[in-house]
Amino acid sequence: MVALKVRKVGNSLGLALPKDVLSHLQAVEGDLLYLVEGPDGGYHLTPYDPGFERKMARADDIISRYRNTLHVLSK
């Protein structure tokens, strides 16, 4: 567990993440991190966009349904 202190940043509030946490997340300055609410009401910080997985699942569905059409169009 890592304790974080909420601080004023301009007109907003923010958190500073320690280097070891950023290293574990493989995050660098400018990267986007996502705070995702879990089923138990807690939160999970991740560098992966949870919406991207849904988009890729839709893309896989479209590719499988229109495989022949996409093959012809790729020529």
Structure write-up:
The chain has one domain. Helix content is 40%, strand content 19%. Strands 1-2 form a two-stranded antiparallel sheet. A two-stranded antiparallel sheet has the order 3-4. The mean pLDDT is 89. The termini are far apart. The protein is of the alpha+beta class.
Task: Walk me through the topology.
Layout: E1 7-9, E2 12-14, H1 19-25, E3 34-37, E4 43-46, H2 50-65, H3 67-73
Antiparallel strand pairs: 1-2, 3-4
List keywords for this structure.
75 residues; alpha+beta; two-stranded antiparallel sheet; 19% strand
Q: What is the distance, rounded to the nearest whole angstrom, between the alpha carbons of the first and last residues?
A: 54 Å
Overall geometry: elongated
Name the beta content range.
15-25%
Major β-sheet profile? 2 strands, antiparallel
Q: If helices are DSSP runs of H or I spanning 4 or more residues, what is the number of helices? A: 3
Radius of gyration based on Cα positions = 19 Å
Biggest β-sheet: strands ordered side by side in the sheet: 1-2
Helix content: 40-55%
Rounded mean pLDDT score: 89
Q: How many runs of DSSP E, i.e. beta strands? A: 4
Low-confidence stretches: none
- The topology string of helices and strands comes to EEHEEHH
Overall structural class, as computed from helix and strand content, comes to: alpha+beta
**Domains, number:** 1
